[in-house]
User: Fold this.
Amino acid sequence: MQDKDFLWRGTALNGQFRLLAVEATQAVQTARDLHDLSPVSTLLLGKMLCATAMLSLDLKKQDSEITLRLEGNGELKGALAICNFEGDLRGYAFVPQLFLATPADNFYPVKALGDGTLSVIRSIPNQRPTSGYTKLTEGEVAQNLAHYFEQSEQIPSAVNLGVLIDQNAHVLAAGGFIIQQLPNASQSEAEHLIEKLSQTPNVSDLMDMGLNIRDIMRRFIFTDGDFELEQVHTVQYQCTCSRERFSRALLLLGIDELEDMREGIEPVCHFCNQTYHFSPEDMSDLITSLKEPQ
Ligand SMILES: [Zn+2]
Assistant:
């Protein structure tokens, strides 16, 4: 297994299709370990991390971020994954340690979400965030993401996402690819491609056999056509929290809320479980800074 995860971008069949791909085995393993995720939560958050990493390829500015959120009324409740322009991923599952009673159900996280929504939120510095959402449909994360592209962004897309874990919840492989049809694509080429995709095994199974993204494209999808794929940059599980960020968030609560926390608080970061200590003195400093703006 390679020790770095990469994001890839490319085109195929004479520029008729756009390719996005990711290998994210290490990042998903880190998420699993940090949050002690059960298998079904690993599959949900892991696939969402792969998807979010690929969605981040459309970000154009430093400090911008893309968030993918799936939530529903089922037992698994949902998860959230964020990737920034630099390829730093983070996320958390709303119910990290869920085990479903019927063993096979643990392989179908979206089914365990019940009725709900998939949302995509883009945050760009100094701009209002933009968002789009679709209702969850039959199928897993990949089918729901394809449905989102079709409904919300009018881009016909094929999505393959895979997270393969062993019995000890060790992540053997995680990755994915997205093929998007561009306006100039011929319909017969698109249909031919859909046929190929339907015969392509899951991307994580192929990665576990030692194939990388380029091998998978060449051997299974573009067997008789051209494609180009280039590594864009690495992706890694990297939280962006800091004491300063928590302080800024606390200040936004206002004086009354902070007065209620005068004894001190210890907020925990959802994304990396780091605890930050704010002593009674720290709280009184924050309150003072609000009372005496510089
Ligand atoms: Zn954190």
